[in-house]
């Protein structure tokens, strides 16, 4: 009977939901680790190219291809738009967090906090 009980606990809807959340968290952590790893490789490549370019003695050396690509990316409209969207989302997130904290601190009621958040999102974000 212990195996049947463990089977029932394992397949219980709340246990499955928690298990799915844990799997999502671990997959997100793995994705963040992979992103950090690939970005560290790119930063290493750029820093070595910049270091070699700056340490070269001759004036006729051409700019390394990686630095030219970074300059081209920084000038692109898509990059500027994505930076703008990220900063906007970050600002809205910070404002919502501050607003929720102030509402909860002033009123202390979860229902009131939900109403305050709804009003803030409806008035300022939409």
Task: Characterise this structure.
The protein has 2 domains: 1-62; 76-126. The protein has helices spanning 2-10, 13-55, 65-75, 77-107, 110-125. It is mainly α. 87% of the residues lie in helices and 0% in strands. It is flat and about 75 Å long. The longest helix is centred in the first third of the chain and has 43 residues, at 13-55. The model has no long low-confidence stretch (mean pLDDT 80). Keywords: Membrane, Transmembrane, Transmembrane helix. This is Protein PHLOEM PROTEIN 2-LIKE A10. It comes from Platanthera guangdongensis.
Summary, kept brief:
The chain is an all-alpha fold. It is built from five helices and no strands.
Instruction: Work out the number of β strands.
Output: 0
Strand content: under 5%
| Poorly predicted segments | none
Helical run tally: 5
Cα-to-Cα separation, first versus last residue: 56 Å
The oligomeric state is single chain
Shape summary:
flat
Percentage of residues assigned to helices: over 70%
Number of domains: 2
- Report the sheet with the most strands, covering strand number, pairing sense and barrel closure: none
- Rg over C-alpha atoms, rounded to the nearest angstrom: 25 Å
Mean pLDDT: 80
Secondary structure class reads: mainly alpha
Q: Sketch the topology as an H/E string, one letter per element.
A: HHHHH
Protein name: Protein PHLOEM PROTEIN 2-LIKE A10
Keywords: Membrane, Transmembrane, Transmembrane helix
InterPro entries: DUF2045
């Amino acid at each position: 009977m212990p195996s049947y009980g463990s089977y029932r606990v394992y397949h219980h809807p709340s246990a499955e939901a928690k298990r799915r959340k844990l799997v999502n968290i671990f997959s997100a952590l793995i994705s963040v680790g992979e992103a950090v790893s690939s970005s560290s490789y790119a930063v290493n490549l750029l820093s070595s190219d910049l270091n070699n370019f700056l340490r070269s003695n001759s004036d006729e050396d051409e700019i390394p291809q990686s630095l030219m690509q970074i300059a081209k990316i920084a000038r692109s409209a898509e990059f500027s738009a994505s930076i703008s969207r990220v900063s906007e989302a970050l600002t809205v997130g910070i404002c919502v967090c501050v607003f929720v904290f102030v509402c909860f601190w002033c009123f202390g009621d979860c229902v009131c906090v939900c109403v305050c958040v709804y009003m803030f999102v409806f008035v300022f974000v939409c």
